[in-house]
Amino acid sequence: MSQHKQEFYRTTPARTGKMMAIMLGICLVGGVIFFSMWDYWTSAPAPVVAQMAGAKQTESAAVATGKTITENLKFIESPDFRTLSFNALPGEEGHNPTINASVGDKIVFNVENDGKSFHAFGVTADAEGFAGIFPSSAIASASNPLKPGMSGTSEFIPSKEGTYYYICTVPGHREQGMVGEIIVGAPQAAAAPQAAAAPTGVHHDFSVNFIESADFRTLSFNALPGEEGHNPDFTVKSGDEVTFAAKNAGKSFHAFGIVSDPEDFNNILWKSAIATASNPLKPGQEGSVTFTAGAPGTYYYICTVPGHALQGMKGSFIVE
């Protein structure tokens, strides 16, 4: 009778030690990666929480008013991370600013994570919680948030009167203070717009220089406040042809355009832009644009880089 010889595989203590060292190394590296992203793991809701949060809200289409409201918001935190808010901490000027709008207005949100934790943004009609976010208003999400230093843009057009809320959609952050109100009133009756005149054949040449104060806190055209030539007014007739030449005589980046609302740098009129916020004039660069003045009214020439008009880069462009 033949006997079956069974083979046994053995290893040496040295090989066993190497294998254990490799496994320990993998565990250590995995642990370091996991705990270095602790804020991320804790900011993402578990699947059951996401299901309980409910579906996003939908907003019926509104008749657009043509008005754009631009709101710049920053996520910030207190040093102990117990208080979260937008733009400023409680008791400080600019804390969670209230936005007033009418039905059909377009609200554009420029949102930046100026804190050290992870955040996300959205608008909801719900008075509590982080559910019911209108899809067009969402920036990032709790499971894929904005990391520190990141930013994003969204928009929201309300279709009915009432109170809405802009919030951080990371669970718990609204309760810690990251919530502001949007008060929406009845749609305003639009005044009949004046029509632009036919081309007059008259041509104007204007020029402006972008300049900055030494501390960069004050921005303007041609001269600083209190100096001769500061932000000059320009007056033309409807239908006149206008050429603007703009030079960046400063050290920052700038761009030019004519708008109806100096706080709305997204709505450039009459194809009057020179460069853009995303492709601006660098120091020493210059450009020009020619356009026909539209309907009579008071308009504004501004730097279209976000925030620069608020720092002083705006002047009146009057069409008679």
Automatic annotation (TrEMBL):
Keyword Chaperone included in the entry's annotation: no
UniProt key word Metal-binding: yes
Keyword terms, alphabetized: Copper, Electron transport, Membrane, Metal-binding, Transmembrane, Transmembrane helix, Transport
Domain Blue (type 1) copper, chain residue ranges per copy: 232-320
Listed InterPro entries: BlueCu_1, BlueCu_1_BS, Cu-binding_ET, Cu-oxidase-like_N, Cu_oxidase_CS, Cupredoxin
Source superkingdom: Archaea
SUPFAM superfamilies: Cupredoxins
The protein, known as: Putative rusticyanin
Residues covered by the Plastocyanin-like domain: 96-187
